[in-house]
Amino acid sequence: MADVLFFENLLLAFTALLTNKMRSLLTMLGIIIGIGSVIAIVTVGNSLTNSITSEMSDMGANNVTVGIQQRETEEESYESGMRYSGSRSTKVPGDDDVITKEMIAGLVDEFPDDIEGVSIDSSLGSAKVESGRNYANVNIYGVNPGYFKANNIKVIAGKEINSTAYEEGKGVCIVSDKFVNNMYDGDTDKAIGHQVEIEMSGNTHKYYVFTIVGVYEYQAQGFMMTAEKDIETELYIPLNTALAKNHAKGFYSFTLITRSGIDSDEFALKVKEYMDRYYHRNRDFTIMTFSLASMISAMSSMLGTVSTAISVIAAISLVVGGIGVMNIMLVSISERTKEIGTRKALGATNGSIRVQFIMEAIVLCLVGGIFGIIVGIVGGAAGAKAMGYAASPSPGSIVAALLFSMAVGVFFGFYPANKAAKMNPIDALRYE
Q: Is the pLDDT of residue 427 over 70?
């Protein structure tokens, strides 16, 4: 019996909806816009989050970066015995402050089961390589073998720098495919084996010559505001070559490639504890460590919070849509007063009348919710594509939006339905 009444009320609801198509569509518009906006925002937010986390994961989600950091405060003593604590002026690390190869070797020996490799780099600076009308902007980095694995750099032509070149600090380099496009019209065969002459401008004029041994695939990071030809790419040379030319005794930072299954956040604390042995007496600098996994988590949380906040604002239109549903239901009840009176005269209970009109409100919101979901998915996919990301609709948000639209129908449909249920059948039958 209950099933029969349910389907009868459902049929009556759809009949009422189709009887006044334009009015029903205009009523549903607020629901459609609200749900569509929420789903579109969540889709774009998920697409952005997934893309960023994927890119960062490719760089090594479990990698731990270790670097030196200037201490925040210093204390100065006076003859009176008083101490003054204040901000420390910016200082440049000296030879006694940098991280040395011996420190890194000791760290690797201390945690052999946790560390798979080490990535180290040392910058020589930026330069503009020119040959006739051709030019390319580069950042020159001295790197060790582990750098390529840690940063997911793929050599697509030629070969990687060999161990002898690393150990002896040879004058060889690996350039990007964009560098080859600019300087050699994309001909990698012509580029490999060719010498690159670089003049560094600045306080001290320097001149370098490197022989190209390999070409790597350039990966764009985010949006680029510069022209394609002016993009600055990295030119990699052996680490010892850069240290010799810089007359450097060590490094400001390095990255540890951890083995699979290692908790990078916990391991970062162990690394800091170990490295603090070298810096606990250093008055100017200390050691800082962080993992990419913690950065990914923090970024995902931040983007999720922003997406939720915007979704809540967009959901306000659902309240407006709900008020529209309540308004149209009151109008519908006013128009169908005699119908209500007839049903009650034939024995319909207050409960059955109430259920009938609540069902109409639910159906109105449910149909609007379905259209809103379609609009939201299409709009979200278009927005994600426009930003250059793969669309990632959230099934959870779609289900939640649908349930919310039904809840709106119940909430805003209850008052009109209750008003209809309480009508006096005699007064209703007399109504003109």
A: no
What are 26-59's pLDDT values in tens digits?
778 888 888 888 888 888 877 877 776 666 555 5
**Are 307 and 284 contained in the same domain?**
no
Rounded distance between C-alpha atoms, residue 66 and residue 26, angstroms: 60
Contacts of 40 (CB under 8 A, 6+ apart): 375, 376, 377, 379, 380, 383
Taking the C-alpha atoms of residue 317 and residue 404, their distance in angstroms, rounded to an integer, is 13
Adjacent-strand bridge partners of 119: 255
Give the integer Cα–Cα distance in Å for 402 and 39: 11
Number of domains in the chain: 2
Instruction: State which amino acid sits at residue 428.
Output: A
CA 300 and chain centroid, separation: 6
Give the residue numbers spanning the domain of 228. 64-291
First and final C-alpha spacing in the chain: 33
For residue 222, give the DSSP letter.
Answer: S
Predicted pLDDT at 271? 93
In 3D space, the residue among 420, 118, 68, 14 whose CA is nearest the CA of residue 249 turns out to be: 68
DSSP assignments along 391-419, one per residue: ----HHHHHHHHHHHHHHHHHHHHHHHHH
Token reading at 43: 């889709």
Residues 78 and 198 in one domain: yes
Q: In what order do the strands lie in the sheet with 253-258?
A: 115-119, 253-258, 64-70, 285-291
Q: How far is CA 402 from CA 10, 32, 360, 362, 376, in A?
A: 17, 11, 16, 11, 12
Coil, helix or strand at residue 346:
coil
Residues 318, 333: one domain?
yes
pTM over 0.70, yes/no = no
Q: Which residue, chain included where needed, has tokens 């024995």?
A: 347
If you write DSSP's letter for every residue of 14-70 in order, what string do you get?
Answer: HHHHHHTHHHHHHHHHHHHHHHHHHHHHHHHHHHHHHHHHHHHHHTTTT-EEEEEEE
Q: What is the pLDDT of residue 80?
A: 46
Name residue, tokens 């334009």.
22
Whether residue 141 contacts residue 151, with contact meaning beta carbons closer than 8 Å, is answered with no
